[in-house]
Amino acid sequence: MAYQFIHCETYSRKKTEKKFSTKEIIAEAKREDGACPHVPEPHPPNLVYGIGLDDLESLHDSMCDSAKMTNSKGQTRSIRKDQQTLGTVVLSFPSIAENQNEQQYSKDYEEWKKLSVDWLKQKYGSELKTVIEHTDESHPHLHAYLIPDDLKSDKYNIGRRAKTDFLKSDEALKLPKKEANKVGDRKYKEAWREWQDSYYEKVAIPCGLSRIGPGKRRLSRDAWQKENQQAQSLKRAISQKNSFVSKTKEQAKSEAEQLIAQAKEQAAKILQDADQQLTKIKNEISQEEEKIKDIKSTWFVKRLMHNIREEGLKEGIKKSSSQISKLKKSISKLKKEKETIQKEKDYSEELRRKDMLISDNSDREKQELKNKVSSLISENDKLEKEKEDYKNKYADLSNSISIQSSKNGYKK
């Protein structure tokens, strides 16, 4: 197994002694004739993410042509040709080792590509325009291309930026120039080391790559092989953890769906029970209304008058009011039952508000459930009105009894 390789660079439209121009860099990526003499048998690149290289070049050039800058004299000018306007990141994967399983290698390579693109997207966001793949060299590798919104790609050189920022700080100004420059160099290395560590943590470790190769650390072959074994063990551990997390998510999803189904079943039962109880209460109300009719009938009034004449006003009314007392108890019972139904209805409404009662995609089931809830509310409103009418009838009856009692009291 090998170690990670990742490198960042910036380019301008103007070629220098040390750097190619943006046009030459993109031509090399396209594998244009004469642009890649280091590749014996060049092949066209594969687009992995974003826009194609032709579109990338057009976008870059059009942005540069329309971009303006203001100089120290306040004059507006086009940006300089030597301004760094394009950022690139090169990421390489080890070539297949001798006796290595090709199928497993291909699987590992695809996983490395995915993790690498995810890392680039997280690191650079919308400024990441294109990622291509080259497989015509000794090591398969990716090229990522970055275009900043302000066309100042110097910011991608995070080491130089860290050193520059430090040298401008109050801390650096208090130090001798030579000492400040040494600290600035450390800041430069620390910034790039953090960048490399980030890639190592997110990509290299899950892919079984070591952070640094054996040459730089002067490791023996035996020590290097042991480190590779450790890297592979760590890779397997992470793979097992990811597999466990994936299974756990699936299990959690299954349990959530089961809970939702149970909640829907429970809510449906609550509504069904409420319908039955409402029907029962309606029947009881009808019975109570019949009793009210009996109370208002001539026979009951005659019976009441007879009781008053035989036992006196006080005892006669007391005896005749036993049925009224029963009706009051019935009213109290109905009130309690209504409160119970109201609580159950509120519970169903709460489930519905939490999207547990109606959580699937069936419009028919949603409508049926909605109609049931609406019917329940309507029945409760009707019950309330009927009970109010009942109270009024009871009050009228009480007044009638009082009037009749006062008229016939003298007969005692």
Short description:
The chain contains 11 helices and 7 strands.
Defining key terms:
412 residues; alpha+beta; BirA Bifunctional Protein, domain 2; 2 domains; 5-stranded antiparallel β-sheet; 11 helices; 65% helix; 10% strand
How are the secondary structure elements laid out?
Elements: E1 5-12, H1 22-30, E2 46-50, H2 53-66, E3 68-70, E4 76-78, E5 84-92, H3 102-124, E6 128-134, E7 141-146, H4 158-167, H5 170-173, H6 177-204, H7 214-217, H8 221-296, H9 298-320, H10 322-353, H11 363-408
Kindly, what is the distance between the CA atoms of the first and last residues, rounded to a whole number of angstroms?
Answer: 118 Å
- Strand % is 5-15%
Helix content: 55-70%
List SSEs in N-to-C order: EHEHEEEHEEHHHHHHHH
Category by helix and strand content: alpha+beta
CATH architecture of the largest domain: 2-Layer Sandwich
Indicate the mean pLDDT: 77
**CATH topology grouping of the largest domain:** BirA Bifunctional Protein, domain 2
Q: pLDDT below 50 for ≥5 consecutive residues: which ranges?
A: 215-219, 407-412
Q: Which CATH first-tier class of the largest domain would you pick? A: Alpha Beta
Strand neighbour order, sheet with most strands = 1-5-7-6-2
Number of strands: 7
Give the CA-based shape.
elongated
Specify the number of helices.
11
Largest sheet, in brief, is:
5 strands, antiparallel
Assembly category? single chain
Domains (count):
2
| Overall radius of gyration | 43 Å
